[in-house]
Amino acid sequence: MPISRRALAAAAVTALVLPLSACGSGGDGGGTTDASGKVEGDITFQTWNLRANFKDYFEGLIADFEKKYPGTHVKWVDQPAEGYADKISADAAGGTLPDVVNVSPDLVAPLAKAGLAMDLDKAAAKYKAEYLPGAWAGHQVPGMTGTYAFPWYLNTGPLFYNKTLFKKAGLDPNKPPKTYDELFTDALQMADKTGGKVATLANVPTIEDFGRYGVPLMDKAGTGFTFNDAKGVELLTKYKQLYDAKALDPQALTATPESSGKKFLTGAVAMNPGSALDLDNFKKQAPNLYKNIGITDQITSTGHVNMYVMGLMVNAKTKHTPTAIAFAHYVTDAEHQMSFAKKVAIFPSTAGSLDDPYFTKEDGTDETRVRIAAAKSLKDAVNYTPVLFSDQMKTALRNEVAKALQGKQSPKAALDNAVKACDQLLKQQG
Fold it and tell me: So which residues are the signal peptide here (predicted)?
């Protein structure tokens, strides 16, 4: 798939509902979780819109694997981003799912429930310590024991802030807010000092905000959502205060990443998430902003930022378990993740890799500034988005949040309604 922080964010909420016929499918009686046998035979490896930009990388990777394990053959298929979830669903139902599949956590959840994703806690436990704990946990499914994909590449993004606006509002430009409490205090001061002309934020709270605030999002059994508890109501109540004070941009209810970015570019908003690509844009279009740009971590009251994680799932019905597991591990081991990270703006999920000078040593470039800031925060990051939280659920939450901010209903009622809608959608997932 296209690898960018925003693309990963979008991927993390793609809805996939497998047909009931997928349960137990796979044909030929299925495979085994015993990975101790000889690595040999033919397997199929499916990626998500990567061939166009990384053909040489993957062909070289496969050739090296086949050389290391004589008697193996890896057939690489790459699917377009458009309709990827539908393609996986159709393959699952028809028993034609590839042996190793590029997935995001939400895509793996229904496959795991259908018995089609191999439990790596059983089949590949010896590799667990090679990965960051938060990344390994990224493909675990509420209500089920086990881990259902190798963590592959990670992404996150720092927060940009306008030092000039902070200074004008009497805030320390070298001490941006780190927690939500600090953010709310600074944002109200910013709005007060500018007469409501400068908002600090341009986006309404998302499920990740509730997670970073410390709100429990879902019960452990995976049977219902819980973000309407007292802490969740507290967060939305504070956002309502920001909205009323114009500390939250009035157009936040309909904001897109593009519109939020433009608000930040023009100085109407003081803080906004971004990437190295945005820095380059500031340099060209807003040189004064660029000279006074601050880079800080995502706001979090838990001490852990949000990560987006991609993985490689092993088909539980594969006829060549040792080979499929060996290959999925090979692609995601420290050496190969590091080589991939140097070709594109992603981060390895392997333990220790983020200590490499590539992620720690400044060289004066904007790209490196952002890469170092993001890598530092990823070491103990978590994937806050529940793997069962679909795109429809995201829309339901956003709609109810909008009503609360506009004063059409209380924050408590809004979150109660959102949870009710999301629980109903969860039941429809089976």
Answer: 1-22
